[in-house]
């Protein structure tokens, strides 16, 4: 047998064997007996080890629809989260993930939310609904460093009044959003500009604070973003199953989010009311 025939035979054997091997490896990662969720144990009001977060409640609902008990792989969000959870095969879905991130494969988005401004209900800034409002000019304003609203605040001439908090922290020991809300409450800050799913649920029933969605800002970057569930890049069937579940249960998903106090908008940035 010539060398050419030997190589051709080997190539043919590999072309037959390799496609069969890859799906088997993928199938082994996803549990068929549990809904295994990747989550931060201290990311209230989204996820929490005591299962009080709204993403925990969403996971319970998804588990009910799939007929599977919910279990968790806990790891702090931020650097290494996806590598140590989803990609390591210890869990099969991240309940809340921004659309377009290359670390995961996104399902269809199941909600869209928006940044907003937190002020005191009875304070002088209670009517502010845009960052160009002159009432903000002499106020210290809390914002998470590196988030889109910081660009809008700078463009409005408020860079010197921004009081930044770190974006990536271990929330088991730090709570920058909670700190800013307390500072708005005690007057250290005039306002805080925060991501709706983080701030909305915290002030929903607070008698002193209110969250106002920023729906009137002009120019970029945009302040509303689609949120999906994240799965492994190669798991097309699992993504399609979740997409179908989202499509069939959107009204109930919205109800869970509204009940939690998450501000919802449509794909054009218009408020979605309960």
TrEMBL record:
The keyword Plastid does not apply. Transmembrane segments: none annotated. Residues 1-24 form the signal peptide. Keywords: Signal. It comes from the Bacteria. InterPro entries: Quinoprotein_dehydrogenase (IPR022448), Solute-binding_3/MltF_N (IPR001638). Residues 34-263 form the Solute-binding protein family 3/N-terminal domain. PANTHER family: ARGININE-BINDING EXTRACELLULAR PROTEIN ARTP (PTHR35936:SF17), MEMBRANE-BOUND LYTIC MUREIN TRANSGLYCOSYLASE F (PTHR35936). This is Amino acid ABC transporter substrate-binding protein, PAAT family (TC 3.A.1.3.-). It comes from Paracoccus tibetensis.
């Amino acid at each position: 047998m010539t060398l050419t025939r030997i190589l051709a035979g080997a190539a043919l054997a590999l072309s037959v064997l390799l496609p069969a091997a890859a799906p088997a490896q993928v199938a082994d990662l996803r549990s068929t007996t549990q809904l295994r969720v990747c989550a931060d144990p201290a990311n209230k009001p989204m996820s929490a080890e005591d299962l009080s977060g709204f993403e925990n409640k969403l996971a319970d609902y998804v588990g009910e629809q799939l007929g599977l008990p919910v279990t968790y792989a806990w790891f702090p969000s931020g650097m290494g989260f996806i590598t140590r959870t989803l990609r390591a095969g210890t869990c099969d879905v991240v309940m809340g993930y921004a659309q377009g991130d290359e670390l995961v494969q996104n399902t269809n988005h199941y909600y869209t939310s928006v940044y907003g401004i937190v002020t005191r209900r009875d304070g002088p800034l209670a009517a502010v609904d845009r960052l160009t409002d002159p009432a903000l000019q002499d106020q210290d304003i809390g914002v998470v460093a590196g988030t889109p609203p910081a660009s809008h605040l700078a463009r409005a001439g408020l860079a010197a009044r921004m009081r930044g908090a770190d974006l990536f922290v271990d929330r088991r020991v730090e709570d920058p959003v909670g700190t800013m809300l307390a500072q708005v409450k005690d007057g250290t800050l005039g306002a805080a500009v925060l991501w709706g799913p983080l701030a909305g649920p915290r002030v929903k029933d607070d008698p002193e604070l209110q969250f106002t969605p920023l729906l009137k800002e002009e120019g970029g970057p945009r302040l509303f973003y689609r949120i999906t569930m994240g799965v492994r890049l190669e798991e097309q069937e699992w993504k399609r199953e979740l997409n179908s579940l989202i499509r069939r249960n959107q009204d109930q998903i919205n109800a869970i989010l509204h009940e939690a106090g998450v501000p919802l908008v449509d794909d054009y940035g218009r408020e979605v009311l309960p």
